[in-house]
Amino acid sequence: MPPTDHPSLRAIREEHATLAAVLRALLHLADEGPGDRPEGYFDTLRAMLFYIDEFPERQHHPKESDLLFPRIARLAPDTMEVIGQLEREHIDGEAEVRALQHRLLAWELLGEPRRADFVHAARRYVEFYLEHMRLEEVVLLPIACELLGPQDWAVLDAAFAAQVDPLGADRDPAYDRLFTRIAQRAPKALAAGVQAGLAWRTPAAEAASAGSMKP
Ligand SMILES: [Fe+2]
Ligand SMILES: [Fe+2]
Predict the structure, then answer these.
(1) Alpha-carbon distance 198 to 201, whole Å?
(2) Which ligand is nearest to the CA of 8?
(3) Summary mean pLDDT of the chain
(4) Does 56 reside within a domain?
(5) Number of domains in the chain
(6) Using CB atoms within 10 A as the burial measure, which of 45, 80, 126, 213 is most buried?
(7) What is the pLDDT of residue 70?
(8) What is the pLDDT of residues 33-51, one digit of tens each?
(9) What is the value of pTM for the model shown?
(10) What is the CATH number of the domain that holds 182?
């Protein structure tokens, strides 16, 4: 199996892509504003924030914190600092996204004067979370590919596979249903989010990263 193609790594990268699409769609929608449909508009933003709050906390961060990070830290003690930072960000991010939910409510209930506060905080949060994922993909995953051995990957891939839904979906179907709902409510914003992609995943960057990994 190529060093970058383990099911556990693929799952993390796919979840990053999904989260990035929703994060960017949130900003796209915030910039557009409610127009003449404030009720549906705020419902959609709320669904996006709920997804961004719930999905990483329950589905994504535990896999990183409990399974992947400890193995990397054991084999590469000099990564302890960056892993410590990422762990703190998992905790801080949860508080941030809840503060964002409060700011959205303030805009919805108190009106236009509170809009700039939400948009500004949302932009800051999206930048923060994109940088968090970039650090994981650009700094930590290549180290994992370089240092983890077949036994580590066997354990990781088995643990990730154990989280597979019995019906064949690779994550809790409730989150997929929520994602579909968001896509139906804000198709243009989500398409823009998907298209924006992840800046560090250019073909050149991917090739350079793969080239630096041991076969
Ligand atoms: Fe993370
Ligand atoms: Fe992550």
Answers:
(1) 5
(2) 2
(3) 86
(4) yes
(5) 1
(6) 45
(7) 95
(8) 998 888 889 999 999 999 9
(9) 0.85
(10) 1.20.120.520
